Amino acid sequence: MATVALQDVCKTYPGNVKAVDGVSLSIQDREFVVLVGPSGCGKSTTLRMIAGLEAITDGQISIDGRVVNDVAPKDRDIAMVFQNYALYPHMTVYKNMAFSLKLRKRELGLKRADIDRKVREAAKILGIEDLLERRPKALSGGQRQRVAVGRAIVRNPKVFLFDEPLSNLDAKLRVEMRSEIKRLQRRLETTTIYVTHDQEEAMTLGDRVVVMKDGVIHQVASPLEVYQHPVNRFVASFVGTPPMNFVDGQLVANGDGVTFVFGAQRMPVRRADKNAAQSYHQQPMVLGIRPDIITTPDASTPRGDHLAALLVTVGIIEPLGDRKDVYLTTTDGQQLVARLPASVAITEGEQRKMYVDMTRAHVFEPGEAGANIAAGPTVMHAGG
Ligand code: ADP
Q1: Mean pLDDT of 42-46
Q2: What's the gap in Å between 45 CA and the centre of ligand 1?
């Protein structure tokens, strides 16, 4: 078990491709941390640098307090599970799992019986004891995935590194394996760093998630914190399904509050620090509204003043069983989606009033990664 620390880590590939641009991150012992972001944001490169498979251009990486910049991968005491599993096709499951231990038998002071015990223990944990004599081609995708994990477990490493381990599986199996990996990590209590482009996978697996874009970390926090308090519009748009709605308008700071204005709509902003909002007075800004904070309270329930009215035309309705996604157009022609309980009576084509819970809405500066004004300016690397 171990801590992992990255300090101002950079990677520039030949051709001046800045894949990772000043990443600092401190991972606790036993923690499950997920690196997430769109394709090409530098997640795999970061993981590969921790593994030692990629040299770092600048900065420092430590595992368990030891700087490993110049330590060979095999001496870092980490085990990595790859997207393509990288199993040896000519070896049985047993031999695949035993291979790395056999290779270092003498160095690790292991006897044949020790290796056998470790392989069988790992196979038991993963429920693949019956498959030990099979070759990879006679296994399903999920079984191969388990073998790849088994190969990592037998080594009892200080740190597990997972690089998109589930992306070759179909959707249902992916969800099953996801909870299996989480259970396993809880049981083994091994520090784990996991890379995925899938925000749902990140949110369900991580104790903390690290949201990256263009080689830079935008936010490191618990899944709930990232969902409820995204530091900027990029994080807000990346996390959550359907994604957050963004409405263009202006912030107006008046005597007793702050209002977001667009078209003929005026919506009181509950979250804004009035002093901070002064500096945005009459600036073009963006209101962030998650689909589930748009509601239609019925007449019998008192509507608190945290709810702001929103006039819309109802577009397409997509039923989802217990809920439905409803597409809306504001009076000034902006598009939104609301996620409503299936029981709500609403009809395509009607014009009506909806309500937005303004205690849960966000105001962002303009631009793709505009800062959440409640979170302060986005903390970015100086070069980012
Ligand atoms: P991610 O895992 O988030 O999809 P990567 O870490 O694989 O991103 O890649 C980050 C950036 O570095 C991308 O622009 C990618 O094209 C580039 N890159 C990755 N590997 C190499 C390489 N070996 N040589 C040159 N550029 C690379």
Answers
A1: 98
A2: 6
Tell me the pTM. Answer: 0.92
Contact by Cβ (8 Å): 215, 18: yes
pLDDT digits (tens, 9 = 90+) for 68-80: 999 999 899 999 9
Mutate-to-test residue for ligand 1 from 11, 17, 194, 209, highest number of ligand atoms within 8 A of CB: 17
Domain ranges in the chain are 4-234, 243-364
Torsion sign, CA atoms 147, 150, 155, 158: positive
Ligand 1 centroid distance, CA of 13 (Å): 8
Closest Cα to atom 17 of ligand 1? 19
* Fold type of domain 4-234: Rossmann fold (3.40.50)
- pLDDT of 124 strictly over 70: yes
Among protein residues, the one with the nearest Cα to ligand 1's atom 15 is 40
Which residues line ligand 1 at a C-beta cut-off of 6 Å? Answer: 13, 17, 19, 37, 39-45
CATH tag, 243-364: 2.40.50.140
* 378: confidence class by pLDDT, cuts 50, 70, 90: very low
